[in-house]
């Protein structure tokens, strides 16, 4: 090489909240942008500034300085300020794949409004990168990635390589091996600047394939360096064959691609997720720090992705207005909680206090939008009596338990003191399906109670109602559709009022046609039964749901077990066991125990305290007729500090790998770490499930917002799911002067967790474990209605897919048109030919990219698109509806 071209990228890495609150950092942001605008005005040779790939910073700044919008737009259009492609830099593993797509969707549109989109896959500080990111980038017309974590320079590895997704999508990738501050501040003295530059060159040239090097001039919250252009100009006169250029990341990428092409270098290809953790560089402890944040995020994502968006689209196909503005606002509000320092739980206590109201507001809006959409749907169903609709948000027919609250007026609304009308009073109900067959149910409660009703044209009114809380098995509910059940009022209904025991409980066991659950002396066992002969036991899993506490003297970033650790497990505890529910639909064991845990940790001596505190744990284990899993609800009252609490499930399966649900993917991962990963973390992220299996059988543990698992290298190949990780500082070891304490990260208090145990035949694909995982996490909804005319039948499916391997991740209105966007992916390792996707009411369809741009025609006939669906391929369709 005759010389190196070193691309100097002026930038700031902007953490919206972290060791200061959002408002505290925003004051610094306003100062930063004000100073940047002065530099751009006074130094015409200061060519470029990169805003960290984000657009949310524009909103945050302009809320305070709205008068500066025009000048910012001008600089963006002129290419001096670079923004996008993201809305914000979310952690990739702790949010859904759909959330990552939405950040790019919104980020692209904001950047376009301001004049230009930076088409660089910038991933500066995410704690590892998901396997499908190259495919996601390609879906937005981005053919590159610049990233900071997830891969390290080992052996003869270079910084530049080809990164490939499981579907074979590829991007050229550049690792910032020396971080995004490798040229943080150039010395003003010319000779010092030259020496500084050559040191950076020498550090990078031996690990680069190219004569194009990336120099990142900036770091966290750092303002632009004034006088930089003059420093570069003076240094270039003494650099000989090398040169510095004030540049942009797009310019660097284009120069890198040309350099690789001209030198005829064949780059190595790395496939899948980038989570290499040779030296704790991916900060894996954040997977379980402040688990309550992860649980709240799962609730919000599920509410938006599975309920409010699809239901609003189905209402839209019936003529209702789609709440586009609310959806955009709510998604943005949710994404305010998605940056890596936010959702990872590694910030000040106050930062995370402020996150919870955002989550709550997202749920409030999303729930209301879903209710409104379901009302539109039910109002369009032709019914002949009081009825309720069971709505299934998932794209396959399903059978599962539903819990419904059914209200019936027994008086008239009144502004004063409402009264019960004796002529309208009644005691009981009967339920019939669409064929007129009576449906059994379990009555949980029946009572008269006053409620308040609201109307847009009246003040709030009081009303007496008869309220029934029921539980029933809803069978064969259509894909993305509903089934209507009629209700008859009566005076008595023997047999289904909860006073008669069902046949799911006998001889201290719970059993249905799939599993038999027993609890003896604290030992939970599950037997998988032969469906053709319930007396035949196929598999037995013992010692399930054991709680394990180990010491953790680490911080919000990293788990650090004391050298002199004490491990406490609940296996030797004699709990109190009771049967609290037994009806024809389901039966539930309640297990009460108290586990003695060391009170705290000792960092100085790397031990756990010998003083113990008692932590009550209550677990509810439920078996439901027709459902092949055991649902678990656990409540932990944590009184201990400096520890990690997990729940354990020995699989007893000889396996060297586990399988876990990821973002548009299922990840096969090694059990245990390579020997050279001395300080690596053997635990992994998951979305909805983890499975240990062989060709004959498997044990799947389903979770709701519990984002960390590990499979132990013990004989039983125990699946460990983390419930709590309790620490007291952002980072650091001893009592240093700069230490930021976070006592609320100790998670003292009561926490609840939902998960399920699913023993199955065959491997995860044969068992279609994603079905049970989604059914556990996405309960069916209930909407009550009266008798009225309508154009819809009693049973209906709005959206159907021909293959169960296809998972629908989005049903939404397009950002820039009236098309209905349906996105799905093939979760398995097998290609599917001629997959069919049918949307009722559609009269045309197009193939879209992830940015919702038309990229081709779709084979469309009779409301149905027929398309090949390769393994792990994300496919987006745009349907045109009436």
3D architecture notes:
- This protein is of the alpha+beta class.
- Helix content is 22%, strand content 36%.
- The chain is built from 14 helices and 49 strands.
- The protein has a nine-stranded antiparallel beta sheet with strand order 24-25-28-29-38-35-34-31-32. Strands 23-22-30-37-36-33 form a six-stranded antiparallel beta sheet, with no helix packed on it. A five-stranded mixed beta sheet has the order 4-5-7-6-10.
- Helix 9 (291-317) runs parallel beside helix 12.
- The relative contact order is 0.11.
- The model is unreliable at 494-501 and 733-738 (pLDDT under 50).
Short descriptors:
882 residues; alpha+beta; nine-stranded antiparallel beta sheet; six-stranded antiparallel beta sheet; 22% helix
């Amino acid at each position: 090489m005759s010389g190196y071209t070193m691309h100097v990228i002026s930038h700031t890495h902007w953490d919206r909240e972290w060791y200061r609150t959002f408002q505290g950092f925003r004051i610094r942001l306003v100062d930063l942008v004000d100073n940047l605008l002065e530099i751009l005005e006074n130094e015409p040779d200061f060519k470029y500034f990169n805003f960290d790939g984000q657009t949310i910073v524009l909103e945050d700044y302009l809320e305070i300085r709205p008068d500066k919008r025009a000048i910012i737009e001008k600089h963006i259009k002129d290419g001096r300020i670079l923004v996008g492609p993201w809305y914000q830099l979310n952690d990739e593993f702790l949010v859904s794949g759909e959330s990552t797509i939405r950040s790019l969707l919104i980020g692209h549109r904001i950047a376009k409004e301001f004049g230009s989109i930076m088409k660089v896959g910038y991933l500066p500080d995410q704690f590892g990168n998901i396997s499908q990111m190259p495919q996601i980038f390609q879906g937005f017309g981005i053919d590159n990635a610049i990233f900071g974590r997830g891969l390290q320079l080992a052996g003869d590895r270079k910084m530049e390589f080809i990164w490939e997704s499981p579907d074979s999508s590829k991007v050229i990738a550049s690792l910032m091996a020396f971080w995004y501050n490798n040229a943080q501040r150039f010395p003003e003295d010319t000779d010092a600047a030259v020496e500084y530059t050559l040191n950076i060159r020498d550090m990078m040239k031996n690990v680069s394939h190219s004569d194009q090097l990336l120099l990142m001039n900036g770091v966290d919250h750092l303002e632009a360096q004034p006088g930089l252009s003059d420093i570069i100009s003076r240094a270039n006169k003494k650099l000989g064959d090398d040169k510095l250029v004030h540049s942009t990341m797009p310019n660097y990428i284009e120069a890198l691609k040309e350099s690789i092409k001209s030198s005829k270098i064949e780059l190595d290809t790395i496939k899948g997720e980038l989570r290499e953790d040779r030296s704790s560089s991916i900060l894996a402890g954040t997977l379980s720090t402040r688990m309550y944040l992860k649980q709240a995020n799962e609730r919000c994502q599920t509410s938006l992705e599975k309920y409010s968006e699809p239901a609003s689209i189905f209402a839209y196909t019936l003529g209702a207005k789609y709440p586009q503005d609310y959806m955009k606002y709510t998604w943005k509000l949710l994404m305010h909680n998605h940056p890596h320092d936010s959702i990872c739980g590694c910030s000040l206590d106050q930062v995370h206090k402020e996150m919870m109201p955002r989550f709550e507001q997202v749920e409030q809006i999303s729930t209301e939008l879903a209710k409104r959409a379901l009302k539109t749907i039910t109002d369009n169903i032709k019914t002949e009596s009081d009825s309720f609709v069971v709505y299934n948000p998932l794209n396959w027919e399903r059978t599962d338990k539903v819990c419904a609250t059914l209200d019936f007026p027994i008086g008239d609304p009144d502004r004063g003191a409402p009264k019960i009308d004796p002529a309208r009073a009644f005691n009981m109900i009967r339920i019939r399906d669409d064929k007129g067959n009576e449906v059994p149910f379990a009555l949980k409660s029946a009572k008269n109670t006053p409620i308040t009703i609201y109307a847009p044209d009246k003040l709030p009114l009081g009303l007496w109602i008869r309220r029934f809380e029921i539980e029933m098995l809803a069978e064969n509910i259509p894909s993305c559709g509903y089934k209507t059940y009629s209700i008859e009022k009566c005076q008595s209904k023997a047999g289904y009022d909860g006073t008669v025991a069902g046949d799911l409980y006998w001889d201290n066991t719970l059993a249905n046609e799939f599993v038999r659950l027993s609890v003896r002396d604290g030992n939970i066992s599950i037997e998988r039964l032969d469906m053709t002969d319930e007396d035949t036991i196929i598999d037995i899993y013992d010692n399930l749901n054991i709680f394990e506490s180990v010491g953790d003297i680490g911080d919000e970033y990293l788990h650090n077990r004391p050298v002199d650790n004490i491990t406490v497990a609940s296996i030797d505890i004699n709990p109190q066991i009771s049967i609290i529910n037994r009806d024809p639909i389901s039966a539930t064991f309640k297990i009460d125990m108290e586990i003695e845990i060391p009170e705290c940790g000792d960092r100085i001596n790397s031990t756990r305290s010998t003083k113990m505190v008692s932590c009550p744990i209550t677990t509810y284990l439920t078996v439901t007729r027709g459902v092949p899993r055991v649902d678990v609800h656990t409540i932990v009252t944590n009184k201990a500090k400096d520890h990690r609490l997990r729940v354990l499930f020995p699989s007893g399966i000889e396996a060297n790998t586990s399988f876990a649900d990821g973002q548009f993917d299922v990840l096969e991962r090694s059990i245990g770490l390579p020997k050279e990963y001395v300080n690596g973390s053997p635990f992994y992220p998951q979305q909805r499930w983890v499975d240990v299996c062989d060709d004959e059988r498997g044990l799947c543990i389903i979770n709701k917002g519990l984002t960390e698992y590990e499979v132990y290298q013990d004989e039983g190949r125990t699946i460990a799911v983390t419930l709590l990780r309790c620490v007291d500082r952002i980072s650091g070891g001893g009592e240093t002067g700069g230490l930021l304490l976070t006592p609320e990260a100790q998670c003292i208090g009561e926490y609840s967790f939902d998960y399920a145990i699913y023993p199955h035949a065959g491997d995860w694909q044969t068992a279609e474990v994603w079905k049970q995982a989604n059914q556990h996490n996405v309960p069916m909804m209930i909407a009550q209605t009266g008798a009225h005319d309508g154009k819809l039948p009693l049973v209906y499916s709005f959206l159907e897919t021909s293959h169960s391997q296809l998972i629908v991740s989005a049903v939404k209105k397009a950002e820039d048109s009236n098309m209905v966007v349906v996105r799905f992916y093939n979760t398995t390792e097998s290609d599917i030919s001629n997959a069919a996707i049918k949307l009722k009411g559609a009269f045309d369809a197009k193939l879209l990219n992830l940015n919702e741009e038309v990229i081709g025609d779709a084979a469309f006939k009779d409301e149905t698109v027929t398309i090949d669906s390769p393994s792990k391929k994300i496919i987006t369709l745009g349907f045109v509806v009436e």
